[in-house]
Amino acid sequence: MALHRDIFWIGRQWAVTGTGIQAVDQRLRGVLDIDIARLWDEDLVQSRRAKPGVNAADFDKALTVARERFPQTPASDPIVAQLEALGVVETPVVSPVVPAMKLRAEGRLARFLPQWRIRC
After folding, report:
1. Residue 17 in contact with residue 7, Cβ under 8 Å?
2. 3-state secondary structure of 115
3. 78-111 pLDDT, tens digit each
4. Whole-number pLDDT of residue 18
5. CB 66 within 8 A of CB 42
6. Residue 53: pLDDT above 80?
7. So which domain of life are we looking at (predicted)?
8. How many CB atoms lie within 10 A of CB 103?
9. What is the number of other CB atoms lying within 10 angstroms of the CB of residue 78?
10. Which residue has the higher pLDDT, 76 or 13?
């Protein structure tokens, strides 16, 4: 996967981007990338660090910069997650509202409607 367009730090082998930590080498196709939500997962971090060919010093610097840039949220705390699952802590339900599309061409002939194009 290509590097995200928001690059906050770049090292020899790793980069901190808008999606988390990404390997600079694009031939890996995002196999070693770590998303923002998984930055605090120590098992995942240790498994990435133990891979052969990983520059540990560069990885540690990227991890430090990423954790400063994206601090751990209280919702990712396992105790809070368990309380939310049990229903003790209520979280508001947010449903995205998508506006309905309205067609204004009913009852009119298509050849008399104005033409439109998408310009890039």
Report:
1. yes
2. coil
3. 666 666 666 665 656 666 676 676 666 666 676 6
4. 86
5. no
6. yes
7. Bacteria
8. 5
9. 7
10. 13
State the Cα–Cα distance between residues 64 and 14, nearest whole angstrom: 12
Kindly list the distances between the CA atom of residue 13 and the CA atoms of 20, 38, 62, 68, in Å, as whole numbers in the listed order. Answer: 14, 19, 9, 19
Indicate the residue type of 78.
P
Percent of the chain with pLDDT over 90: 13
Q: Are 9 and 24 in contact (CB under 8 A)?
A: no
Distances (CA, A) of 114 to 103, 104, 107, 110: 14, 12, 15, 9
In eight-state DSSP terms, residue 97 is P
* pLDDT above 60: residue 28: yes
* Cβ atoms of 42 and 49 closer than 8 Å: no
pLDDT of residue 100: 72
The beta strand positions in the chain, using DSSP E, are 7-10, 14-17, 20-23, 34-35
Contact predicate 105/113, CB 8 Å: yes
Whole-number pLDDT of residue 71: 84
